Amino acid sequence: MVVADHQVAEAVAEVVVAGNGMGMMMSLTTSLLIALGIVAVSYTILLVSELIAVRRNAASENPLSPTAAGTATGFVTNFFDTLGIGSFATTTSIFRQWRLVPDEIIPGTLNVGHTLPAIVQAFIFIRIVPVDGRTLALMIAAAVSGAWLGAGVVAGLPRRQVQLGMGAALFGAAIIMSLTLLSLLPGGGTDLSLAGSRLIVAVTGNFLLGALMTLGIGLYAPCMILVSLLGMNPTAAFPIMMGSCAFLMPVASARFIRARSYSPRISLGLLVGGIPAVLIAAFIVKSLPLTAIRFLVVIVVLYTSAGLIRAARRERKQSELQPSVSVAE
């Protein structure tokens, strides 16, 4: 049975909204966790169904067998992702350094492969960090809406535009990481909820971050900055950003899957390596001194950003030369 991408989105929207009417029976946070479980099952059915279809159509390769490189990448990136570094920028850097995935399908592979590990993270942090349920639900819904629109655009973009978009997004992410490490951005306040104009700003901001995430820019760092600027406790960013990713990534991934704009084997590697890494980081390691690692990530991300932009420029020059070569022949 194949579950359509819009059904995944509907599962998110219907159950999140339903939570508002269940306040007499259970908390909105509990409703979100139930919704997340339904979304996880719906997404898993979609992914398995599509992978089986891909396998049937494949002449030689078995797409249901994850690669060792993808599995190792999934373990390392999701381990540090759970500790707050983020996984998209680091995974993109690994993909390009080792040429694991063509540039044009990197966004789809990131979303498809990291979705289930992100859902596991969300279950953990929504349970243990006490954020206001209404604030959490509205910011998650905004991120899902942004991802739905963004994935539809990115999945159909040509290779050069994807390279330019990811290059610019990674450069922006590196700047944000640097400003945070240098303490040049606000450290946040003590609030665990938002209301009025601050809530409107938060919802609008998370909508934009959800759309950008489909291009390969992680939501974690900019979301943490957003909630800090609005006076929230930085700890509140963890359930917000992980919850947003857990709900938006199945929606975005569904569109990438339907467009076949991803690598099945590498995505499965990210998934297989990522889930145990999340559990180890959350329940065994819990915390590490990560400042030096974050500075290293900034350097790697800047290098990857420059490489993507250079690759896009090379492809532009080649496309400009192609007509003249045809005429000469």
Task: Give an account of the 3D structure.
- This protein is an all-alpha fold.
- It has one domain (67-315).
- It contains twelve helices and no strands.
- The protein has helices at 5-20, 28-57, 68-82, 88-98, 106-128, 133-154, 159-181, 196-213, 220-229, 237-258, 264-285, 291-328.
- Helix 2 packs antiparallel against helix 5, helix 3 runs parallel beside helix 11 (264-285) and helix 7 packs antiparallel against helix 12 (291-328).
- The longest helix is centred in the C-terminal third of the chain and has 38 residues, at 291-328.
- The termini are far apart.
- 49% of the residues are buried.
In short:
By secondary structure, this protein is mainly α. It has helices at 5-20, 28-57, 68-82, 88-98, 106-128, 133-154, 159-181, 196-213, 220-229, 237-258, 264-285, 291-328. It has one domain (67-315).
